[in-house]
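Question: does this match?
>
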Amino acid sequence: MVLRIVDRGMDRSTYEALRARLDIDHHHPLGLILHGATEVAGTMRVAQIWESDWYAKRFDEDVLLPALTDLGIGGEADIATYPLEHLVTP
């Protein structure tokens, strides 16, 4: 499993437009275990847990980047990826 912290420099309204477009609340990407978002100093940051980095990259390339392009949003991002050693889901 991997933990990713993603910062695309998006404000809340841009994040909400992308969220509505992807609708991952109802259409869960293959390999995604957890998705959460928060706003820090006007910028949305996302925490994700994936079964593997491969699933995360497939989602980015096959689903996310086309959606970003359709919405006129650049694909640049600061992404920190870490091996996840322990996860508890009550």
In short: The first strand starts at residue 2 and ends at 7.
